[in-house]
Amino acid sequence: MAQNALLKATLQWYLDNGVDEILGEEPIDRTQMPVIEPVLAQKQPQSTVAPPLATAAMPQQSPADLMGAAEAMSKARELAQGCNSAEELKKAIADFDGLSIKKTAMNMVFCDGNPKAPIMLIGEAPGADEDRQGKPFVGVSGQLLDRILASIGLDRQEEDPLKSVYISNILNWRPPGNRTPSQSEIDISLPFIKRHIELIEPKILILLGGVSGKAILDRSESISRLRGTFHDFNGVQTIATYHPAYLLRTPAQKRAVWQDMLMINAKRKEMDILSE
Ligand code: URA
Question: What's the pTM value of the predicted model, to 2 decimals?
Answer without folding.
Answer: 0.80
